[in-house]
């Protein structure tokens, strides 16, 4: 069975970039459909950080008060333990934003929140269990997508296709857009450990010889990131699950009694870290944003927020041309020009940290201790502000400037 439909904008991928862009375009009166291959948002995401820059966008949409009623934890500072020395590395309390903190919230709640508010607009449609598999072309221009849905194959014609389908984007590959691979020396193993009231409260990164261990406070549990040298997973697994548990217990002694929560290797998920960016983000009729345009390192947890910023910039530039059916290639390249500098600067900072800190820690066996200058600066409040600014706000933050139409119905909070 085959179905044919037509919209002004078809967005492939219901992640943060796709859902935010869908909401902003529908809010501006643009006929938009978001294709999401899963049946719902209830799955295990790696990134659950909502940074101050994104919270500012939510405020500009008039949704912040409701958003903050959703279950979340507020993190106002970041600390790192290097050997036996603990340092404060970022203090978000100095940021001049309405929310000077990072909110840890399950990404499925964030996406469901965006989808619920987008659905208030008659021009918005979310099609779940519908996976974009290819592109339609007419006279050298992208004219829509081919997708696979429960009812069969679907063809959706569109004035603009937006690829927001992640770092393994099918659509960017189908479009022949090439990425520059920048490399990463590590991968990350993600798993959960139960958390009790006697545990530390802060987000913490621990740096030991050959090991980096990240703990994120998720209320009832710790989201743990065990950083390993790239390509070393099989050797780690060969040593056995008990050896892995003992290593985790050493790095997080307060949770040692709960280490049996790691029941098997199935509880440990591999995040293959890659850092890349497209040389060209668009073709006539197609634009890539978020991870489809630039895969970020997990350093700083900024990937989601870069994706949101892309969506806001795209809506600011494209909402009116889409509504008037006059989007040009200049409009699409303007989005890349706007967002490429923040992407490059952020990735360069991540690559510097990867090369000068992470790669060294993962390959050394010598005891670690931060240099005396770093220990001295870590006592100076001004030293905490720059990392907080770079992580929390980023380079060239975007603000909602796309037009707004009244919603067709009121959304009841849940």
Task: Spell out the key features of this protein.
FAD/NAD(P)-binding domain; 414 residues; eight-stranded mixed β-sheet
CATH homologous superfamily label of the largest domain = FAD/NAD(P)-binding domain
> How far from one another are the termini?
37 Å
The helix fraction, in percent, is: 25-40%
Question: What overall form do the CA principal axes indicate?
Answer: globular
Write down the oligomeric state: single chain
- CATH structural fold name of the largest domain: FAD/NAD(P)-binding domain
Low-confidence stretches: none
Which structural class should the secondary elements be placed in?
A: alpha+beta
CATH top level assignment of the largest domain: Alpha Beta
Q: What does the largest sheet look like?
A: 8 strands, mixed
* pLDDT averaged over residues: 92
Strand content: 25-35%
Helical run tally: 11
């Amino acid at each position: 069975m085959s179905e044919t439909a037509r919209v002004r904008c078809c967005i492939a991928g219901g992640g943060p970039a796709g859902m935010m862009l869908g909401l902003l375009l529908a809010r501006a009166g643009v006929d938009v459909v978001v294709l999401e291959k899963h049946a719902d948002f209830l799955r295990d995401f790696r990134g659950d950080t909502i940074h101050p820059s994104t919270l500012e966008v939510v405020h500009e949409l008039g949704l912040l008060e409701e958003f903050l009623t959703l279950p979340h934890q507020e993190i106002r500072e970041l600390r790192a333990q290097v050997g036996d020395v603990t340092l404060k590395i970022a203090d978000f309390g100095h940021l001049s934003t309405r929310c000077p903190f990072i909110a840890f919230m399950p990404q499925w709640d964030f996406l469901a929140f965006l989808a619920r508010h987008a659905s208030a607009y008659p021009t918005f449609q979310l099609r779940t269990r519908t996976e974009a598999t290819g592109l339609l072309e007419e006279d050298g221009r992208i004219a829509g997508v081919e997708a696979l849905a429960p009812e069969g194959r679907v063809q959706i014609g569109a004035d603009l296709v937006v690829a927001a389908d992640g770092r393994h984007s099918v659509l960017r590959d189908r479009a022949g857009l090439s990425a520059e691979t920048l490399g990463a020396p590590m991968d990350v193993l993600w798993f959960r450990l139960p958390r009790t009231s006697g545990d530390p409260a802060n987000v913490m990164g621990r740096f030991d010889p050959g090991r980096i261990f990240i703990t994120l406070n998720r209320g009832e549990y710790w989201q743990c990131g065990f950083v390993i040298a790239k390509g070393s997973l099989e050797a780690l697994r060969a040593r056995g699950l008990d050896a892995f548990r003992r290593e985790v217990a050493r790095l997080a002694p307060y949770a040692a009694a709960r280490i049996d929560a790691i029941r098997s290797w199935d509880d440990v998920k591999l995040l293959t870290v890659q850092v890349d960016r497209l040389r060209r983000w668009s073709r006539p009729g197609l634009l890539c944003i978020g991870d489809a345009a630039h895969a970020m390192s997990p350093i700083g947890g900024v990937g989601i927020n870069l994706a949101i910023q892309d969506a806001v910039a795209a809506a600011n530039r494209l909402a009116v041309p889409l509504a008037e059916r006059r989007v040009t290639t200049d409009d699409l390249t303007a989005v890349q020009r706007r967002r490429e500098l923040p992407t490059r600067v952020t990735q360069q900072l991540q690559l510097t940290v990867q090369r000068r800190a992470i790669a060294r820690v993962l390959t050394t066996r010598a005891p670690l201790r931060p240099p005396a200058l770093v220990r001295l600066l870590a006592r100076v409040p001004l030293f905490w502000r720059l990392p907080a600014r770079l992580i929390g706000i980023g380079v060239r933050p975007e603000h909602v400037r796309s037009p707004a139409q009244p919603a067709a119905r009121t959304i009841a909070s849940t």
